[in-house]
Design goal:
Elements: H1 6-18, H2 23-51, H3 53-71, H4 75-90, H5 92-99
Helix pairs in contact: 1-2, 2-3, 3-4
Amino acid sequence: MAAAWIIFTYFAPLLEDRMGYGRNGVTFILVVFGAGAVIGNMLGGRVSDRIGPARALIFVTIGLLYQYRSQMKGRQELLYGLGGLFIMGLGIRAVLQVLS
């Protein structure tokens, strides 16, 4: 869980330097990201408790695939997205072993 917080270290300079947000904009974006992470963890835990961790991971993978497909217009982008999902899928077995 602690590794998830490292994103704040990288997001702040990226938002300020590359995207041109000021301090207030960066603060707002990071608060929204943090709130989404907390809510997502709570909902993910409830879903996992109700339908089981394996089904929850399959559900999340299908959701990510749908999201990637809806945002990608070209064939090359789709292949990169599917490759990323495949790599994430390799870790599902390790996650399931930890959860059981």
